[in-house]
C-alpha cells in the first residue's frame, strides 16, 4: 500500500493540467543530442564496470573471510600492511579514467559548439522569464511564446541556431531529444543549435531552478516539414485575423490593463512584459505548456491564473462575468 502511495505522489500533477513527460535522452533525433548520448553511454559503461569490480571485490571478501564454524570469534585476522602494487593501482587507474572522461567530454563539447552552420540557417532568440519563454525569429519579425517552431531536416542541410538570454534569473533551456542543457544568464548571451531529423513535437523544460514555478516552466519544440514551417511563418507575420479585430470583446480587452503586458499586432495592445497574443489560439498550449489550449482552459486561466500556476506574475484581474466572457471571446478569435 505504501509503495502505491509513493508512486502516486511521485507522479502527481496539478489537476486539469496536461501530463508532461520528459523525453528519452537515449533516443536522440538531432546531431547534438546524438553526440551527448554516445558520451553518456561511454560514462555509463566505465562507471558500470567500476561498480561491478568494486561490488564483486566486496562480495568476494565477505564470502572468503566469513566467520566459519569452529573459528575463534575473538581472534583477530592476520594484519597485512602496505602493498606498493595495490596502492599504485588504485591511484593510477582512477587518474587514467578521469583523464579519459575529461578528454572525451571536451572533444564532444568542442565538436558541438564549434560546428559550422549550414547555408540554410534559422535564427531564433529565446528569452527566459519567470516562468515562460519568449521566442523571437529576427529574420521574420515574429514574436511568440513557449513553443519553438522550426523546420525538420532529415538530410542535415538546415539547422536552427539559438541565442539564449534571460531578463531575470538563471534559467536553462533543455530539450532532451534534440540537444543538451544550456544556461540563460542575465546580461549574457549563450548559444546552441538543433537540427531535428523528424517532424514532431519534442517536449522540454527549464533545467535550472528559477523560483516557485520552475517545475512548470515547460516548452515545446515543434519540428515541421520545411514547407509547413514556411506556411506557419507566413501566418505568424500577419496581424490579428479580421474576425478578432471586429470582435465585440476587443474593446473590453483594450479597456483593461491586459494591454500593459501583452501585445496584439494591429491593435493598441503593445505590452512587452507578457507573451505576445496576436496568434494565441494557433499554439498548442497555455501557461508555458502547462495547459492544453482549449477555450475552457483559456477562460479558467484568464479568470484566475494563480489557481493553475500559483506565484506566476499574471494577476487575478477579478473580472466580472460579462468582462470574462468578452475577453475570452476575443482571445479565442486570435488565431
Structural overview:
- The chain is of the alpha+beta class.
- The chain folds into two domains: 18-67 and 80-226, Cupredoxins -  blue copper proteins (Immunoglobulin-like, Sandwich); 242-332, Immunoglobulin-like.
- 36% of the residues lie in helices and 19% in strands.
- The chain has nine helices and twelve strands.
- It has helices spanning 2-10, 31-64, 84-113, 226-236, 242-245, 249-255, 295-303, 305-308, 321-332, and strands at 120-129, 132-137, 142-145, 147-151, 158-166, 171-174, 182-184, 190-194, 200-206, 218-224, 285-286, 291-292.
- The strands form three sheets. It has a five-stranded mixed sheet with strand order 3-2-1-5-8, with no helix packed on it.
- Helix 6 (249-255) packs across helix 9 (321-332).
- The longest helix has 34 residues, at 31-64.
Short structural description:
The protein is an alpha+beta fold and 335 residues long. 36% of the residues lie in helices and 19% in strands.
Amino acid at each position: 500500500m505504501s509503495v502505491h502511495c509513493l508512486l502516486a505522489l511521485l507522479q502527481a500533477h496539478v489537476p486539469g493540467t496536461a501530463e508532461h513527460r520528459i523525453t528519452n535522452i537515449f533516443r536522440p533525433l538531432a546531431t547534438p543530442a546524438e553526440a551527448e548520448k554516445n558520451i553518456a553511454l561511454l560514462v555509463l559503461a566505465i562507471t558500470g564496470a567500476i561498480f561491478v569490480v568494486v561490488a564483486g571485490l566486496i562480495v568476494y571478501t565477505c564470502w572468503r573471510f566469513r566467520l566459519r564454524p569452529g573459528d575463534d570469534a575473538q581472534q583477530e585476522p592476520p594484519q597485512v600492511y602496505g602493498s606498493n602494487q595495490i596502492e599504485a593501482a588504485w591511484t593510477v587507474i582512477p587518474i587514467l579514467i578521469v583523464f579519459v572522461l575529461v578528454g572525451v567530454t571536451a572533444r564532444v563539447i568542442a565538436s558541438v559548439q564549434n560546428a559550422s552552420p549550414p547555408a540554410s540557417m534559422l535564427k531564433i532568440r529565446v528569452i527566459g522569464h519567470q516562468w515562460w519563454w519568449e521566442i523571437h525569429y529576427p529574420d521574420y519579425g515574429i514574436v511568440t511564446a513557449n513553443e519553438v517552431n522550426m523546420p525538420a531536416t532529415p538530410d542535415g542541410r538546415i539547422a536552427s541556431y539559438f541565442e539564449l538570454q534571460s531578463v531575470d534569473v538563471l534559467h536553462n533551456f533543455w530539450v532532451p531529444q534534440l540537444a543538451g542543457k544550456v544556461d540563460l544568464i542575465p546580461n549574457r548571451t549563450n548559444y546552441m543549435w538543433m537540427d531535428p531529423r523528424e517532424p514532431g513535437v519534442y517536449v522540454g523544460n527549464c533545467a535550472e531552478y528559477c523560483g516557485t514555478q520552475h517545475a512548470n516552466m515547460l516548452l515545446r519544440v515543434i519540428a515541421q516539414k520545411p514547407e509547413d514551417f514556411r506556411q506557419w511563418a507566413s501566418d505568424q507575420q500577419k496581424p490579428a485575423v479580421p474576425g478578432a479585430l471586429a470582435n465585440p470583446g476587443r474593446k473590453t480587452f483594450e479597456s483593461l490593463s491586459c494591454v500593459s503586458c501583452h501585445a496584439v499586432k494591429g491593435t493598441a495592445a503593445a505590452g512587452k512584459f507578457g507573451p505576445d497574443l496576436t496568434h494565441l489560439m494557433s499554439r498548442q498550449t497555455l501557461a508555458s505548456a502547462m495547459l492544453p489550449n482549449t477555450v475552457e482552459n483559456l477562460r479558467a486561466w484568464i479568470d484566475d491564473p494563480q489557481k493553475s500556476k500559483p506565484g506566476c506574475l499574471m494577476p487575478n484581474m477579478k473580472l466580472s462575468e460579462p468582462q470574462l466572457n468578452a475577453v475570452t471571446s476575443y482571445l479565442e478569435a486570435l488565431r
